[in-house]
Amino acid sequence: MEEGPEPEKVTEEEVEERGEKEEAPEEIVEERIYTIPLRRAWIVPRKERTPKAIKVIRSFIKRHMKTDSIILSREVNELIWSRGIEKPPRRIRVRAAKNKEGVVKVHVAEGD
User: Fold this and answer.
1) Taking the domains of the chain in order of start, what are their residue ranges?
2) Separation of alpha carbons 24 and 28, rounded Å
3) Beta partners for 71?
4) Quick one: what percent of the chain has pLDDT higher than 70?
5) Residue range 38-95, pLDDT digits in tens
6) How many CB atoms lie within 10 A of CB 50?
7) Which residue in 78, 82, 88 sits closest to 108, CA to CA?
8) Burial 80-107 (b: 16+ CB within 10 A, else e)
9) Radius of gyration in angstroms for the set of CA atoms belonging to the chain, rounded to a whole number
10) Please, how many CA atoms are within 13 Å of residue 43, restricted to the half-sphere of its CB?
11) CA 26 centroid distance within chain
12) I want to staple 41 with a disulfide (CB 3.0 to 4.6 A). Which of 7, 52, 64, 112 is the partner?
């Protein structure tokens, strides 16, 4: 069995020159936990409920965290879509964290 070429070894100086140095964790300026009611998602036709629930979450976070830059995590998306397009949850508990650039990342609150 032949071995492939050995991986290229790179020094720290070369990494810094390339700009590939790992970034430090983002500084969180503000973090809040919300229970978001998704009642408004249930007043639209069945095939539009889950997409409407995503819009309701974005508008709620926009209103309460005072920013337009919102990133929903994969876990939040999967939780909303877990029962399909017709039956999103009635409410969802999330943790919203704003960094110093004003970008809010939304995650599922622990324990849920």
Assistant:
1) 27-108
2) 12
3) 105
4) 78
5) 999 999 999 999 999 999 999 999 999 999 999 999 999 999 999 999 999 999 999 9
6) 22
7) 78
8) beeeeeeebeeebebbbbbbeeeebbbb
9) 20
10) 5
11) 14
12) 52
> What's the pLDDT score for residue 2?
59
Please choose, from the candidates 75, 80, 74, 72, the residue with its C-alpha nearest in 3D space to the C-alpha of residue 96.
72
Dihedral sign from CA coordinates of 38, 39, 41, 47: positive
What are phi and psi for residue 30, nearest 5 degrees?
-145, 135
Mean pLDDT (the chain, rounded): 87
If one looks up domain 27-108 in CATH, what number appears?
Answer: 3.10.440.10
Contact 44, 52 (CB under 8 A): yes
